[in-house]
Design brief:
By secondary structure, the protein is mainly β. Helix content is 13%, strand content 47%.
């Protein structure tokens, strides 16, 4: 019995010691938590707490600028919260580099002033610049450029000067970043302009403007590497997507385009020292009721340039004029140099599994440069039906001998391509 009592006493002492140790440890952890805030996340900054009204009338520009300054200077990752509402803002500069990652959680809609005020060339209304590990979660947020007045005064067709009106969303120098769930409407000029970015992902993007909105390219990209555009619906008055010089490793997937001018590489060759376009993939997409389908356009009389390693795959065309087009005598509004062929070299380009209905009798037009003819161009499983009354669809070619694989409707290169056809 004595041994049993001693054992019970010893067990009781052990339990008391364990309980005391655990309690002291918990107290120390709690005190440490007070001394050092979590390094994983910073504060959430509400633009309304910074003074924004979100009533669609008051100028909320300063509240956004103040919230950005605070977030960008934070030493730990921070969030800017934009609650539901309509926020009227003038030009905004969300510029880095920041001390840590910044995330926008945007549930409200952003509105530009309706007045069209020309600015510096390639200026932007909403500008994201020199940011790393930046995230914008839009939750369906709308960036409304209110561009109807600007379209009426746009004289680009007469002057050839098209870049003084503001781009809705200008994205410059972003690295390892993601923009998701936003919609750009009624931009005064381009909707989104992506320049000098690396490893940028765009997901669930909406672009919406009427066909009469001049020079409102949906998404323009240039001098960027590793950009991904996944799931987008684009309706606009110009190219749904335009791909400029210096674009490499660009993926476009699950995009609906139309109305508009289709998806274009170019125009290229207008300026000296343009960088090569390489590694572009456009696949699993629908193009509907557009003036062109997938096209590559270069200027005549151009300096040397390169377009290579391009894949157009699994694309459906619905009532599209010129579903497949290479145009190396591109000359809009007559504003081009005369007296020489394009020197932009097109090579290693594949059109695979492209089908649908053509609104033009010429469904495939490959008009290459006589100065540097296209090489290693492949047509594989092409199937178009012409919806008009001028007979079956045809394919026209010039300065090219494409490689042919699988089904070919219309038969390839049965006519000579002409600039005015």
């Amino acid at each position: 019995m004595v041994g049993l009592r001693r054992a019970k006493t010893l067990l009781f002492v052990v339990l008391v010691v364990m309980a005391t140790t655990i309690a002291n440890g918990a107290k120390m952890l709690k005190e440490n938590d007070k001394d050092e805030p979590s390094k994983g996340s910073g504060e959430t900054i509400d633009v309304k707490a910074s003074g924004a009204k979100g009533d669609g009338i008051t100028d909320d520009s300063k509240a956004f600028a103040d919230a950005w300054k605070k977030a960008c200077e934070s030493k730990s990752p921070s969030k800017i919260k934009v609650r539901k509402g309509k926020y009227l803002v003038k030009t905004l500069e969300f510029k880095g580099p920041c001390k840590s990652a910044v995330t926008f959680e945007m549930d409200g809609h952003i509105m530009a002033p309706s007045k069209a005020t020309p600015g510096k060339p390639h200026c932007g209304w909403i500008n994201f610049e020199k940011l790393e590990n930046f995230n914008l979660n839009g939750h369906g947020a709308i960036f409304d450029g209110q561009g109807a007045h600007a379209w009426k005064i746009n004289d680009c067709a007469k002057t050839g000067k098209c870049n003084t009106l503001p781009i809705n969303i200008r994205i410059t120098g972003l690295t390892n970043s993601k923009i998701k769930g936003i919609k750009s409407t009624n931009s005064k000029l381009f909707h989104m302009n992506i320049i000098n970015c690396k490893n940028l992902t765009l997901e669930d993007i909406g672009i919406d403007a009427p066909p009469e909105s001049l020079n409102t390219d949906g998404i323009h990209i240039g001098r960027s590497n590793g950009v991904r555009l996944v799931r987008a619906k684009i309706k606009t008055g110009d190219d749904c997507i335009s791909i400029g010089d210096g674009t490499e490793n660009f993926l476009v997937e699950n995009v609906e385009c139309g109305p508009g001018h289709g998806i274009a590489i170019g125009s290229l060759g207008k300026y000296p020292n343009e960088q090569p376009v390489r590694g572009v993939t456009i696949r699993r997409s629908l193009i509907k009721n557009t003036d062109n389908g997938v096209r590559i356009k270069t200027w005549p009389g151009s300096p040397p340039g390169i377009v290579s390693n391009i894949l157009f795959q699994d694309i459906t065309m619905d009532n599209v004029s010129l579903p497949i087009l290479i145009d190396q005598v591109y000359c809009p509004h007559g504003h081009c140099k005369k007296g020489g062929p394009s020197k932009v070299k097109l090579s290693d380009i594949t059109y695979r599994d492209i089908k649908g209905t053509s609104a033009s009798k010429v469904a495939v037009k490959l008009l290459c440069s006589p100065g540097v003819p296209c090489t290693n161009i492949t047509l594989s499983n092409i199937d178009f039906v012409y919806t008009g009354k001028k007979g079956p669809a045809v394919s026209a070619c010039s300065d090219i001998k494409p490689k042919l694989k699988g089904k070919m409707e219309p038969p390839a290169c049965t006519e000579k391509a002409k600039p005015d056809s």
